[in-house]
């Protein structure tokens, strides 16, 4: 709204009042800033504040401390693991620990080698370049990245055809932090150029309880231990989901109570938002329902399941399946997806004798 030119008219006796346009501007600005500040404030600022991933923290601390002691830039770092476990936060912490700037981009945004060259040429010595979803980087940009990571140099091609000229461009030493949810899709030459590779694991309930408690303290929310455990147990082992559920529970407690988050408020809010005691949401239960009620427990192909629940096959395969498989409710076979005994029981149904699984 600040980019739009406007004229305001105030009556003489109302000259000291705030105009409606200004009030609306203030409200929009505060709302935008508030949401932005919430997301930023929940991110840990250092390794000592980062909850969970003890092995990764120990290894990364050694890498960073060694680099600081030698006065050099750290080795390039590859962070792999499912979404929401803190890969972006870890990249921010690396820059913070080294006292340098962080430049952020994503693999899909680097479609041409020129896009990467422009970003690399603007780096300062010691900067941290973070590329999210690095497995989706375009091939020409990836090949340019090889030389940049090893020799801190890139070749810029000027012109086309027989008259094209290669101009070498030196770039200052930097640290590349790559994040990927599919490490297997990285090419061998790119993966081998990272000096340190970390695999981020799902969180247990105890660590997620600490995540929820810390976030509640930052948000100024009073929360009981039982409520924090309840939220943590339904968060699919993912801090991002835990923080999101906490904000929704906070809304419920403020609207329907005195603002304090207790066990009753947490259970009531999670019921309203369709998150059951196993962390399954509406789509997860729809997939299980289609598999069990519609096809007798399977085996069923992912395309058939997607049609049954009205979603794209990629949504079912990438959003629902990983957690359902990890929770032991679906098994995958060459013929399709099969519901386990645990899935039958979760829907309140008696599993047949031929049902897969031990439970």
Show the helix and strand layout:
Layout: H1 20-41, H2 54-70, E1 77-80, H3 87-98, E2 102-106, H4 113-121, E3 128-132, H5 139-151, E4 153-158, E5 165-170, E6 175-180, H6 188-192, E7 196-199, H7 205-219, H8 225-233, H9 239-256, H10 263-272, H11 282-292, H12 302-309, H13 313-326, E8 330-333, E9 336-339, H14 341-346
Parallel strand pairs: 1-6, 1-7, 2-3, 3-6
Antiparallel strand pairs: 4-5, 8-9
Helix pairs in contact: 4-5, 7-8, 7-9, 8-10, 9-10, 11-12, 12-13
Question: How is this structure best summarized?
Answer:
The protein is of the alpha/beta class and 359 residues long. It has helices at 20-41, 54-70, 87-98, 113-121, 139-151, 188-192, 205-219, 225-233, 239-256, 263-272, 282-292, 302-309, 313-326, 341-346, and strands at residues 77-80, 102-106, 128-132, 153-158, 165-170, 175-180, 196-199, 330-333, 336-339. 32% of the residues are buried.
């Amino acid at each position: 709204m600040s980019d739009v030119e406007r004229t305001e008219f105030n009556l003489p006796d109302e000259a000291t009042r705030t105009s409606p346009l200004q009030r609306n501007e203030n409200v929009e600005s505060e709302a935008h800033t508030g949401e932005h500040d919430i997301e930023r404030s929940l991110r840990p600022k250092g390794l000592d504040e980062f909850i969970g991933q003890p092995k990764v923290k120990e290894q990364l601390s050694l890498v960073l401390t060694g680099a600081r002691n030698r006065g050099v830039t750290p080795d390039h770092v590859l962070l792999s693991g499912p979404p929401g476990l803190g890969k972006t936060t870890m990249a921010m912490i690396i820059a913070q620990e080294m006292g340098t700037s962080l430049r952020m981009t994503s693999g899909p945004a680097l479609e041409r080698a020129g896009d990467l060259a422009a970003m690399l040429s603007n780096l300062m010595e010691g900067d941290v370049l973070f590329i999210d979803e690095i497995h989706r980087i375009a091939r020409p940009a990836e090949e340019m990245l090889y030389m940049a990571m090893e020799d801190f140099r890139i070749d810029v091609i000027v012109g086309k055809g027989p008259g094209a000229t290669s101009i070498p461009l030196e770039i200052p030493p930097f640290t590349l932090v790559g994040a990927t949810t599919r490490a297997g899709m990285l090419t061998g030459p790119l993966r081998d150029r990272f000096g340190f590779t970390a695999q981020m694991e799902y969180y247990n309930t105890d660590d997620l309880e600490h995540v929820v408690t810390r976030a509640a303290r930052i948000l100024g929310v009073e929360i009981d231990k039982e409520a924090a455990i309840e939220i943590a147990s339904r968060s699919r082992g993912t801090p991002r989901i835990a923080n999101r559920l906490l904000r929704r529970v906070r809304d419920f407690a403020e609207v329907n109570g005195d603002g304090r988050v207790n066990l009753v408020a947490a259970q009531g809010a999670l019921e309203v938002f369709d998150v059951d005691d196993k962390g399954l949401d509406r789509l997860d239960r729809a997939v299980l329902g289609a598999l069990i009620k519609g096809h007798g427990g399977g085996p069923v192909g992912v395309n058939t399941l997607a049609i049954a629940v009205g979603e794209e096959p990629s949504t079912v395969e990438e959003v629902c399946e990983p957690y359902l498989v990890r929770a032991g409710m679906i098994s995958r076979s060459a013929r399709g997806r099969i519901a386990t005994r645990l899935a039958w029981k979760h829907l309140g149904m008696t599993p047949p004798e031929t049902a897969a699984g031990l439970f």
